[in-house]
Amino acid sequence: MTIAVRPIARAALPAGVLLAIPLVAMRFTDDVAWSPFDFVFMGALLFGTFLTFDVAARRLASRAQRAAVAVALATAFLLVWVNASVGIIGTPGGLNDLYLGVLAVGLVGAVAARFRPARMARPLFAMALAQLLVPPFAWLVGGPEHFAAPPGTWGVLALNAGFAVAFAAAGLLFARSGAAAPRRG
Question: Which of 63, 74, 68 is nearest to 119 (CA)?
Fold first, then answer.
């Protein structure tokens, strides 16, 4: 079994460049204070996102499909990043772990769709719905006191609506791209 070096390099290079930003910033300001864990976590998140896009984009036939993958991956990346760094509902962890369910819905749906572009709209629409269901479920389970901290109730609802719209937009891109045959290669 051989490992394709080019996709790994194409993912590692932009991840490394982006990780250099906080590394350099830490030399000049105390406002940026990343731990080694922060670098490892963000490096894995960036590398995984770039690698997934690279592999998927090479197998897709249309620009709309590549755009759909880009929007879906960027939205998932931002969802993980925001929740790991500051949290949407209160502080990181706790009720914010419910957002892992949104990602699980997408992963299970993508596997069930066999990653076929013509079938990927449904998992993305399901992710949008799951995203919208997190705040009311968190309110029922955790209570309204978790929504008192910034961004507040309206901020939580607005952020969730934004993520849901982005997932739905990716789903629409897949739906509109039709059943174009995947590119071989």
Answer: 68
Query: Residue 146 has what pLDDT?
Result: 86
* Domains identified in the chain, total number: 2
Which of the listed residues 59, 81, 97 is the one where a domain comes to its end? 59
Same domain, 33 and 95: no
Is-contact 42 19, C-beta < 8 A? yes
Q: Is residue 129 part of a domain?
A: yes
pTM: predicted TM-score of the whole model, two decimal places: 0.88
| Residue bearing the bigger pLDDT, 159 or 184 | 159
pLDDT reported for residue 79: 97
Concatenated DSSP letters of 155-178: HHHHHHHHHHHHHHHHHHHHHHHT
Q: Is 122 exposed, middle or buried (0-12, 13-18, 19+ CB in 10 A)?
A: middle
10: Cβ contacts below 8 Å, ≥ 6 apart: 50, 51, 54
Domain end point (choices 42, 59, 76): 59
Cα separation, 148 vs 49, whole angstroms: 32
Same domain, 162 and 93: yes
Question: What are the φ/ψ torsions at residue 41 (nearest 5 degrees)?
Answer: -60, -50
Task: Give tens-digit pLDDT for 127-167.
Answer: 999 999 999 999 999 888 888 888 899 999 999 999 999 99
